[in-house]
């Protein structure tokens, strides 16, 4: 069904929301709806100085690409981009970007929401907190709510 | 076989990766976790609750029941917290 | 619950997605999720030369503001922007922008999706087609699917 | 009372707005539609299917059963197609 290859990038550098939307839509007159999701590092009211994002190189790209292709088969999409950063990220900075383009708004909303739910609890990334007071921070625990969010999509079995 | 560790599994074991020779009796991901736990305090500490540890064989996320089948690379890590 | 006033604009000029996201998020470290929806004019495979968007001045701003305030009470949002254009809009051009910012991704997704469903069938705008072959185009019919999409939110009674 | 028309209602009636003096018997939005239909071919043409016509009183969307109550401005238009 999909006539495009999802654009998946794992990088330490920041991304440019407008440039990424442009890359998907420029010169096209067949796209009716573009949904973007930007995830940012929160400062937790001054408690955090940064997040450290660790990832599994190779597997991260492969897993996100696999699930992005599932999304492109499940919804009538015309473009799908996912960029996930790693390394040290400070409050207010971008962590993740997902863009879904479609003829139809609900397809774009659902595909972007689905891919974010996947990234939260299945993409091999781990977040560690750096405390503003210099004390050693903890690894962030996975949330049961994120598992539940993923279940509502009836994701195909892994592997 | 190459083992790779991430996040607090890596920190508690004290290394990011290592090569191991598996006993013949260790054939599944779950059995690998059980065997590793016996290798010393740092492994015991990292793998105390094996159920929460996620396993990837050749960079594919698998159940603990999955056969290792002479895998090239097996990764152990906590539940993911991306996005 | 809302500690901000939704930013609602009805204008003939185009908008700048990146600038609008910046306006909501710049200098803040408490926003974790920003969802944007951009709606564009489709060319319908060359059949259309443009859409003409008519609106009811005054009522358009008032209605969108009213429903945006409902969204800000229903979800834990930190910012909400809606910009709807009117006048002649050509294929590939922007028609509408909605941005929802929140601590939580599902709140941002749902608020943006809700506001778009409202705009589709309750905001006083009407679209007329201009045919590429110069023949007189028709007014676009409302879709039952859009009515259904709106019903799923159990919108409060009008007025 | 000021009446304003939009989209194909405006095109079929042939004007964007007008001032009218309502008969005393016309008290609801629905009665207004019925009365307007009798005012000539262009109104008959625009309001042929009153059920599909949406009404706003003083820029608030209302049911056809809503009382006019000496409204300042009443708008008639087709179902909206924004977004």
From TrEMBL, chains A, C:
Q: Which reaction does it catalyse?
A: 2 [molybdopterin-synthase sulfur-carrier protein]-C-terminal-Gly-aminoethanethioate + cyclic pyranopterin phosphate + H2O = molybdopterin + 2 [molybdopterin-synthase sulfur-carrier protein]-C-terminal Gly-Gly + 2 H(+)
**A GO molecular-function descriptor:** molybdopterin synthase activity
Its annotated pathway reads:
Cofactor biosynthesis; molybdopterin biosynthesis
Question: What is the top EC class of this enzyme, as a single word?
Answer: transferase
Q: What is its EC number?
A: 2.8.1.12
Its GO biological process annotations read:
Mo-molybdopterin cofactor biosynthetic process
Q: Does the keyword Ribonucleoprotein apply?
A: no
Superkingdom in the source lineage: Bacteria
UniProt keyword Nucleus present? no
Q: Which UniProt keywords apply?
A: Molybdenum cofactor biosynthesis
PANTHER family hit by this protein: MOLYBDOPTERIN SYNTHASE RELATED
Q: Which family does it belong to?
A: Belongs to the MoaE family.
Quote the function comment for this protein: Converts molybdopterin precursor Z into molybdopterin. This requires the incorporation of two sulfur atoms into precursor Z to generate a dithiolene group. The sulfur is provided by MoaD.
Q: What is this protein called?
A: Molybdopterin synthase catalytic subunit
TrEMBL record, chains B, D:
What this protein is called in its record is: Molybdopterin converting factor subunit 1
């Amino acid at each position: 069904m999909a006539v495009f290859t999802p654009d998946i990038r794992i990088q330490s550098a920041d991304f440019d929301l407008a440039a990424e939307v442009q890359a998907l839509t420029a010169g096209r007159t067949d796209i009716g709806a573009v949904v973007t999701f930007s995830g940012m590092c929160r400062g937790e009211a001054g408690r955090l100085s940064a997040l450290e994002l660790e990832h599994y190189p190779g597997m991260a790209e492969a897993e996100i690409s696999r699930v992005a292709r599932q999304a492109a088969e499940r919804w009538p999409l015309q473009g799908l981009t996912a960029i996930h950063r790693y390394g040290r990220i400070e409050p207010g900075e971008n962590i993740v970007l997902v863009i879904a383009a479609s003829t139809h708004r609900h397809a774009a909303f659902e595909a972007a929401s689905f891919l974010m739910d996947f990234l939260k609890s299945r993409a091999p990334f781990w977040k560690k907190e750096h405390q503003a007071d210099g004390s050693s921070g903890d690894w962030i625990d996975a949330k049961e709510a994120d598992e539940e969010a993923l279940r509502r999509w009836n994701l195909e079995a892994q592997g | 076989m190459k083992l790779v560790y991430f996040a607090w599994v890596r920190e508690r074991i004290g290394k990011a990766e290592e090569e191991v020779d598996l006993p013949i009796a260790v054939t599944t991901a779950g059995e690998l976790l059980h065997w590793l736990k016996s290798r010393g305090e740092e492994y015991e500490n990292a793998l105390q609750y094996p159920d929460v540890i996620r396993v990837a064989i050749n960079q594919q996320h698998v159940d603990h029941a999955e056969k290792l089948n002479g895998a090239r690379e097996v990764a152990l890590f906590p539940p993911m917290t991306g996005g």
